[in-house]
Write a structure and sequence with these properties.
heterodimer, A: 300 residues, mainly alpha, two-stranded antiparallel sheet, 13 helices, 2 strands, B: 284 residues, 80% helix, 0% strand
Chain lengths: 300, 284
């Protein structure tokens, strides 16, 4: 196809071939889009260094009240009741191993959930929507950035707690714990995709995100064992990846930790991965179709 | 005679400014009922993990170790009162502290600052509307806690508690004014608000007594109004003390309020002049 300008000069339009379908070239293109999306957010992040530093130390600041409160209620570091419940009485190690994943719930709920909404704020959502890139790549780019960012915060949190309080962790348990963590993150990504779909419809979806975050925080055994929750809450926690992941990670990281939960945590998490990812993507595509049909994309 | 009429008219205009600001902010709040319900209920979800944590670690609802440093063995009412009063910190920092920034987002800041009125009354209106909404939220949370967590509230403690809360609000809005002033000049005051929230969260006795912190942290905690308000309210509600026994806490709150409000207004006027001169009011 040719285009004629006002002076009558004919320009030949350059044909751009966009890879489509489940092909290697398309996968490469989508991976590139994910990477570029991640880089873009890092550039935005690093443009505000004070904000970046604050966000990096925030996991440590939010963890401190849990530890100090724990120490205050038992008057020391060892809780006999906790030992009776889970086999270990070291409250600092117990709370730390629980709290270090909380930031990653934020990755799913806030960072991924609001990746599309953020583009809307910046005024770039429509431009991105007309590119032949998958919308999911935008969300996954944000997920990649947020996971790295949160890992940095967790590393600072670990170093600070280790230096101030000391931690009794089993080094040999780190690798299996990381595997459990990876499985948990996959399910959380599925959850994050679902939240990002909700934020497209609800617009001011921060209430949903904050609500989900608070409920996940209660249903996950972050600062207490699952057994202290009412039975119905314990059952509800099994559909979230954080509860089995925390139990599994603690079993590998803390000596003498004896979880009450029976069953294979790896299989449990794998099942949750499949369910949450498929469900998240399904809802995301349904929302995408709905939002474009109703013309709500540019609305606030 | 003419002077008196002008004074009356000026007083009436200022009253209208304050009233209009309150009505405007309350209209915004009621326009989003979900947001209203969220702030009234969800802060409760944020302290439930602490209650469960305490139960798991202690194996009951009372802790003798806690009683040695807090004066009360019941850690659940301690945490609940801390959380309810802390909600004033959150609403003042993010509500009042960012109110000026919000006007900039809405595109109304230039009109407000160029209007021929004393800006102090606009700020007073904003502070009052925030106080009303914060108090509605805090009251709802407290009512839920009375129903579900067995917090005891007798008629005799209501007036001294309200008095302490008013003193707390004055101090917090003084601090929020400083934030609002900084947001005029430096725009992104959000990080400063977050940082202040961190300071309140760690160094004030919101979830644990001040005595459980190291000495240097206790000293830092003692310059925050929330610390004295929490000590006073807990002493009245949990330890059945009279307000007269808490004169030192009341005095400390009065001093902090005076300093924070004076600094807040002074900084705001100074920053307003600076931004007007530099022409950066409508910058983002």
């Amino acid at each position: 196809m040719n285009l004629k300008d006002t002076s009558g000069k004919v320009h030949k339009l350059r044909e751009v071939k966009c890879p489509t379908g489940f092909t290697w070239s398309n996968i490469k293109a989508e991976l590139r889009a994910i990477w570029e999306s991640n880089i873009k957010i890092w550039k935005l992040d690093l443009a505000y260094p004070i904000s970046f530093v604050r966000q990096c130390i925030s996991p440590f600041v939010f963890l401190l009240p849990f530890i100090i409160y724990g120490l205050a209620v038992i008057g020391g570091r060892h809780s006999e009741n906790l030992e009776r419940l889970v086999g270990t009485g070291d409250v600092v190690t117990f709370v730390f191993t629980g709290y270090m994943i909380i930031g990653f719930i934020g990755t799913a709920v806030w960072a991924m959930g609001f990746s599309i909404r953020r583009e809307q704020w910046f005024g770039t959502l429509e431009s991105l929507y007309v590119t032949p890139t998958s919308r999911l790549s935008l969300v996954l780019g944000m997920a990649l950035h947020s996971t790295i960012h949160q890992s940095l915060g967790t590393a600072i949190e670990f170093a600070a707690i280790y230096l101030i309080f000391g931690l009794a962790l089993q080094i040999q348990g780190i690798l299996p714990a990381l595997l459990i963590f990876a499985l948990m993150m996959l399910a959380l990504y599925g959850f994050g995709i679902l939240v990002s779909a909700l934020s497209l419809i609800l617009k001011e979806g921060w209430i949903v995100a904050e609500g989900l975050h608070s409920i996940m925080m209660i249903l996950s055994p972050v600062a207490y064992p699952l057994i202290v929750l009412p039975t119905i809450a314990q059952q509800a926690s099994s559909v979230l990846p954080t509860a089995p992941a925390l139990v599994g990670m603690r079993a590998f990281l803390i000596e003498n930790y004896t979880p009450q939960v029976v069953g294979n945590i790896f299989l449990h998490l794998l099942a949750l991965d499949v369910i949450w990812i498929l469900f998240g993507i399904f809802i995301f595509y349904l929302t995408d179709i709905y939002i474009r049909k109703t013309g709500n994309l540019a609305k606030y | 005679m003419k002077e008196r009429i002008m004074q009356q008219s000026s007083l009436r205009s200022n009253y209208i400014i304050v009233w209009s600001e309150i009505v405007k902010n309350l209209k915004f709040l009621l326009a989003y009922p979900v947001v209203f319900i969220f702030w009234a209920i969800f802060p409760i979800f944020w302290f439930i993990p602490f209650i469960l944590q305490g139960e798991a670690f202690v194996g009951g609802l009372q802790s003798q170790s806690f009683a040695e440093i807090a004066g009360t063995a019941e850690f659940i009412p301690f945490v609940i009162l801390g959380a309810v009063l802390n909600s004033y910190v959150l609403t003042s920092l993010y509500g009042m502290g960012e109110s000026i920034r919000r006007e900039a987002y809405r595109g109304t800041l230039d009109y407000i600052l160029s209007s021929p009125c004393n800006k102090a009354f606009i700020l007073i209106g904003k502070a009052l509307s925030e106080s009303i909404s914060s108090s509605i939220f805090a009251f709802t949370q407290l009512a839920i806690c009375i129903l579900f967590f067995g917090i005891a509230l007798t008629i005799g403690v209501i007036i001294p508690v309200i008095f302490i809360v008013i003193l707390l609000i004055l101090g917090l809005y003084g601090m929020a004014l400083i934030l609002a002033a900084l947001s005029l000049r430096y725009k992104q005051a959000h990080d400063l608000a977050h940082t202040m929230e961190y300071v309140f969260s760690v160094f004030s006795p919101v979830r644990y007594p001040l005595a459980s912190l190291p000495l240097w942290a206790q000293i830092l905690g003692k310059i925050l109004p929330l610390t004295y308000a929490l000590i006073a309210v807990r002493s009245i509600m949990l330890l059945n003390q009279n307000l007269s026994a808490l004169y030192l806490e009341v005095l400390a709150l009065l001093v902090i309020d005076g300093v924070a409000i004076f600094l807040g207004f002074y900084l705001f006027n100074w920053m307003e002049e600076k931004t007007k001169k530099s022409g950066t009011i409508s910058n983002f």
